[in-house]
Amino acid sequence: MVESQNCKYHPTAVACWRCRHCDVKFCNACVPEDTRSYLPKCTLCRRSLESLSIAQSIPPFWQKIGYLLLLPFNPASLVLISVFAVVFSLLPFGKIGAILFLLGLLPLIEFFFAAMESVASGENLKLKVSDFLTAKSKSMFIKLMLIYVFSVVLIVKLSAISSVIGIILAGFLILGLPASIIILMMEKSMFSMINPVKVGYIINLFGKAYIVLYAVILLASVLGIESFQLVESSSGFAKRLVVNWGLLYLTMIVFLMAGYLVYQFHQELNFTINRQTIFQVVDGPKADPMAEVNIMIQEGRFEDAQRMLLDKIKENELDYKASEKLIMLYAIQGQLSFLDKIAQSYFEVMVENRKVRHAAEFYFKLSKKKIDFTPNSIDVVAAITEEMKNKTQFLVALELIEKFNQKFKMVTGWERLYFTQAQLLVEFANRLPEAKLSLETILKRGTDQELLGKAENYLKAFE
Ligand SMILES: [Zn+2]
Ligand SMILES: [Zn+2]
User: How far does the centroid of ligand 1 lie from the alpha carbon of residue 75, in Å?
Assistant: First the structure.
């Protein structure tokens, strides 16, 4: 039997994560982002999850070639490529020209690395010329050159001792060049760049993609050498400009491809830049903050679910979804004293924060589900019953006012409730005699001057 590749809790979604311990697969919706650790944790056992090769679900770069070829066509890249193409075309030949050329490469390589990093983080190319001018140099080119010189010296020295070792080392360095560049981009470290374990890891991980990237680099180099000879032999500025432009463009594309490769293998590379992008790239449901709680409920682990919800509420008392879920959970389990405690503070917080409409809807929902609850605060009752002055909710509002009045009699501010009650009775329930009774009670026993006036006017209006 073929093992299902789908999420246990969302059978239609492709799983991206697996817990070895629980032997459960999760989709992205089930795995909330954890900013504190690189790999998300299993909801059921809190161990780190392993990724089910997300690289598989992102198309390889040769399928995205059109996209990559078009990427440099943004103002920042075009300006820089063109400026440097002009500069390089103006350089004199000979030693001075070569030195100036190397100096020119300094900022350019920096820019290419930045572009590569941008693609690697899945952000397309958001480079601006101003970013480039103000960017802090990471000395990428210097690092590259130092390692290059160091490697050449090392190979020459070793070849003097044993030509076989020299050839093997040279082969490894040539083969490992793209991997080294990728490591340099990721870690900005010269020493990691020549770490054979890391280079080997990347080559092994990328596999076929590495060979394709290598072929592209070879092709670009051959084209480069060919056109360089053309430039050397031709004295026309325009011709040199075109060739230089083409070469710079091609070089940039190679960097972008390498960046895309990193993007694709992001997860496996243990590369911590902007992990969020992986969540945005993979199709399927988006991470749901309640996913973990839902899983716990589905697994019948109510206490764990309750603990998670309490944590959420503690973190943010305005997380009304968490409060509502917890209230429902307590209701299902008949834990009425807990229900009352959470619901009291939920309604108070909601009313204080002017989320009265939402609170009223939730109260309505509770009453439809026959969950008995009466807020202790008259402010809460006054606010939500005021919101329930409509054809669908007025009966629930009337019931609530009655329950409250029975429980608390005439607490300070009671006139407001009586007035709302009268309005509900007149405007929606068509129970005039009862409304009249409420208004008369306000007039007889009320002390709130404003409401006394209101009650008087209201009474006059329907007489
Ligand atoms: Zn899921
Ligand atoms: Zn687990």
Answer: 41
Distance between the two ends of the chain, CA-based, in angstroms? 79
Structure tokens at 324: 């509502």
- The per-residue pLDDT for 286 is 63
CA of 222 to the centre of ligand 2 (A): 51
Tell me the ligand closest to 285's alpha carbon: 1
Is the pLDDT at 1 greater than 60, yes or no? no
Local confidence band at 277 (pLDDT 50, 70, 90 cut-offs): very low
To the question of pTM greater than 0.70 for the whole model, the response is: no
Summary count for the chain: helices (H), strands (E) = 21, 3
Give CA–CA dist 25/4, Å, rounded. Answer: 9
- Which amino acid, 382? A
- In 10 A of CB 63, how many CB atoms? 9
| Cα-to-centroid distance, 295 and ligand 1 (Å) | 9
| Gap from CA of 120 to ligand 2 centroid (Å) | 30
Whether 144 and 184 have beta carbons less than 8 Å apart is answered as yes
Q: Is the pLDDT of residue 276 over 50?
A: no
Q: Provide mean pLDDT across the span 223-239.
A: 76
Domains in the chain, please, with CATH?
Answer: 1-52 (3.30.40), 61-276 (no CATH), 291-462 (1.25.40.10)
How close is the Cα of 119 to the center of ligand 1, in Å?
Answer: 28
Question: How far, in Å, CA of 242 to CA of 12, rounded?
Answer: 52
pLDDT digits (tens, 9 = 90+) for 308-355: 999 999 999 899 999 999 999 999 999 999 999 999 999 999 999 999
Distance in Å, CA 15 to ligand 1 centroid: 7
Retrieve residue 378's tokens: 């008259």
> Which residues have CB atoms below 5 A from the ion given as ligand 1?
7, 9-10, 27, 29-30
| Cα 270 from chain centroid (whole Å) | 17
Interval 34-64: pLDDT, tens: 666 656 788 899 888 877 766 566 777 888 8
* 308 token code pair: 């998670």
